[in-house]
């Protein structure tokens, strides 16, 4: 099959296996070109391992520190007629490269919020790793089925308290326009916390601990975006921000509850980037396009892999980690410092439909968006007939 991108709104409904493998290969090459990690985990569980920040963290663990990795993700397998999701192909490519490097790599495809997948994960750890010394929680999901009540909760991306009118960029129509986002109801807020807050992270740690598969001194981290004034009304101080605040509560509770195994629990603040999750958030494509322009000009731009590598070196495995007042690890400073934010804000006030492509790096945004699905890579022949049915390699 010849595979060309099918873009519908803020998603691409297909993906390219060869391009996804190229994406994984480039991230591995980046990590291999960095100084080897002096300290780091050897047995890693990544929940949300197949795309974005979770995939990058898995790559840093495996290729920066020769770690065995077990991943959990929720991806669609390809059929003869339909491509798999990008996360499916990324995982296949990761397995191939990790196995070729002599590393254990296995992934479990299913709903991480369910107890069944937690049990399957525990069985795989017991059989192949014994215990884990790092648990990364990198899920981004619009809904969660509560494993106890069976009720399905949906998250909402809305402001809290009052309506918010702002600029946005519609990637589909190539249009900068104003939008008004109505405030969330109490139920929408509570439901978003239920999906993206700390409850499931805590449940994972409880299950893993009760099964005896967390090593003494194990670390765990969940990812957050904190941002600044420009994004606070729709992110930091909005429904998703409140869910993320619940991660801070959970990290504290985890630190208190698992002292007997010296568990270190952190929320890690990462920068805004184009991922499947962030492209669905109103305002973010405009903010990220402007931010990319500023940070590339200043030479401070980073992608998921650079962020994940720095998180290990300067945060999780540093003797002097950069912790903020809420004890979060922070590697988002190159984006959130006042000077960079000031430059983005100036552009934000100036940007209109007419000057958008001059002021913003939409080209860079779109390139990253295509890359997420394995498209737009130089050296990949997108006219070639490729077999979409790629399977995940097994450990030897
Ligand atoms: P992403 O969409 O690229 O990745 C989400 C991952 O979760 C995928 O591996 C997917 O398969 C998995 N997943 C989703 N639902 C699942 C389910 N029910 N069961 C099992 N796996 C499931 O997202 P991302 O942007 O990398 O986000 C990961 C984390 O990083 C989130 O917590 C997000 O808030 C945070 N973060 C993102 C940004 C950003 O700009 N993208 C910035 C800072 C922090």
UniProtKB/TrEMBL annotation:
Protein name: Enoyl-[acyl-carrier-protein] reductase [NADH]
Assembly description: Monomer.
Documented EC number(s): 1.3.1.9
Matches recorded under Pfam families: Eno-Rase_FAD_bd (PF07055), Eno-Rase_NADH_b (PF12242), Enoyl_reductase (PF12241)
Class of this enzyme: oxidoreductase
Catalytic activity: a 2,3-saturated acyl-CoA + NAD(+) = a (2E)-enoyl-CoA + NADH + H(+); a 2,3-saturated acyl-[ACP] + NAD(+) = a (2E)-enoyl-[ACP] + NADH + H(+)
Residues the record lists as binding NAD(+): 48-53, 74-75, 111-112, 139-140, 244, 273-275
């Amino acid at each position: 099959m010849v595979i060309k991108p099918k873009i519908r709104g803020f998603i691409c409904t297909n993906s390219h296996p060869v391009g996804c493998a190229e994406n994984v290969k480039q991230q591995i090459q980046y990590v291999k070109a960095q100084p080897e990690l002096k300290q780091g985990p050897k047995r890693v569980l990544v929940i949300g391992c197949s795309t974005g920040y979770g995939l990058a963290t898995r790559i840093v663990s495996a290729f920066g520190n020769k770690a065995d990795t077990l991943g959990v993700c929720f991806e669609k397998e390809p059929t003869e007629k339909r491509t798999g999701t990008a996360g499916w192909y990324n995982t296949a490519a990761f397995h191939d490269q990790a196995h070729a490097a002599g590393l254990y790599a296995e992934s479990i495809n299913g709903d991480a919020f369910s107890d069944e997948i937690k049990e399957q994960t525990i069985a795989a750890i017991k059989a192949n790793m014994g215990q884990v010394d790092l648990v990364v929680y990198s899920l981004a999901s619009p809904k969660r089925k509560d494993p106890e009540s069976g009720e399905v909760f949906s998250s909402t991306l809305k402001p809290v308290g009052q309506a918010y009118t702002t600029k946005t960029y519609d990637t589909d129509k190539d249009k900068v326009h104003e939008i008004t986002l109505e405030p969330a109801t109490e139920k929408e807020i509570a439901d978003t916390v239920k999906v993206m807050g700390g409850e499931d992270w805590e449940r994972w740690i409880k299950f893993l601990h009760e099964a005896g598969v967390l090593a003494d001194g194990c670390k765990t981290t969940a990812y957050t975006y904190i941002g600044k004034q420009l994004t606070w009304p729709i992110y930091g101080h909005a429904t998703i921000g409140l869910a993320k605040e619940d991660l801070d509560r959970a990290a504290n509770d985890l630190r208190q509850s698992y002292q007997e195994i010296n568990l270190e629990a952190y929320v890690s603040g990462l920068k805004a980037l184009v991922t499947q999750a962030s492209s669905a958030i109103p305002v973010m494509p405009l903010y990220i396009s402007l931010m990319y322009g500023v940070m590339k000009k200043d030479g401070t731009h980073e992608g998921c892999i650079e962020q994940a590598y720095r998180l290990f070196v300067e945060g999780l495995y540093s003797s002097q980690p950069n912790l903020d007042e809420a004890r979060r690890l922070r590697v988002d400073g190159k984006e959130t410092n006042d000077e960079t934010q000031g430059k983005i804000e100036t552009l934000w006030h100036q940007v209109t439909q007419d000057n958008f492509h001059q002021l913003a790096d939409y080209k860079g945004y779109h390139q990253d968006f295509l890359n997420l699905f394995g498209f737009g890579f130089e050296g990949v022949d997108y006219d070639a007939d490729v077999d979409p049915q790629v399977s995940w390699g097994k450990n030897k």
